[in-house]
Specification:
Layout lengths: L5 E8 L2 E6 L2 E6 L2 H17 L4 E6 L5 E5 L2
Parallel strand pairs: 1-4
Antiparallel strand pairs: 1-2, 2-3, 4-5
């Protein structure tokens, strides 16, 4: 079992939303909800392979919050 955690972050980048992990862009989407859903799918895939994972996304006040697992 691999023990490296996978942390995914949803970040606003201009008028789009970016999913990042380990400083690498994993996806660019038009809507925040789509970026969060994509990040959650990636995190679930990592967890299915035995890697702890989580997704962080900004709330309305620009503070990061954990959106998965919740």
């Amino acid at each position: 079992m691999v023990s490296d955690a996978v942390e995914l972050f949803v970040l606003r980048n201009g008028d789009r939303w970016t999913v990042m992990s380990d400083g690498i862009v994993r996806g660019r989407l038009d809507y925040k909800i789509d970026a969060e859903e994509a990040a959650i799918r990636m995190a679930k895939g990592a967890r299915a392979k035995g890697r702890p994972s989580g997704v962080m996304s900004p709330d309305g006040g620009s503070q990061m919050r954990q959106v998965w697992p919740n």
